[in-house]
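Most newcomers find our protein records easier to grasp once they have seen one. A learned vocabulary of local backbone shapes supplies the integers on the structure line. Here is such a record, shown just as it appears in the course material:
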Amino acid sequence: MSADPQRASVSDAVRVVSASMRSRQILDAAARLMERTGSEAVSMQALATEAGVSVGLIYRYFGGKDDVLLAVIVEVLDAFRTSVPQAVDAAGDDPVRRLAAAFTAYCHVIARYRHAAVLTYRESNTLSAEGRETIKTLEVETSQPLRTAVRDGVDAGVLSTPNADLVAYDLLLLAHAWALKHWYFEQTMTLDEYVDAQLALMLQALIRPDLRAEYSDLLDR
């Protein structure tokens, strides 16, 4: 009797979802553990204990600890690559609102992967030269929506700045600051309040004074 192709397809889908969940479980555990102790102090056994899985299962997905660390960092950058363009496209054609949407999306990704974002700063220097180049390349690619939005705003005569790249990276660093200084900011504000406050400060400096009234919803927060 021939196998049921529909049942096989469902089984394959279940295996893919299961593998994704296991990988996600391992990466989350790795981010938490490495943030607490540093990557050099982490053993595969310690990671297995943190994740609640066997060492053998980790090796099914990753070649070793360095592969795990690289995967943790790349996952954040991949989330940027997916979430930020979607948010920008949904914001419409106005460059200021596209910039606001991009920054907001960056902050929400950072909040979702807070432990992994901290690792990007603390542990990326322990990666191989190839791994570091991968991270640098992805960072430039995933910051492009911010740079594009700032340049579009300048070209449209709405934003005023002599250096669009510098503004874009300032915004990127402000997004990362939620992870790096979360222990402090969480005492007085929520993520959304943080995003609103940082946006208002940056846009107040960037939007031409005669056009600020058009963006009062972004500036008066």
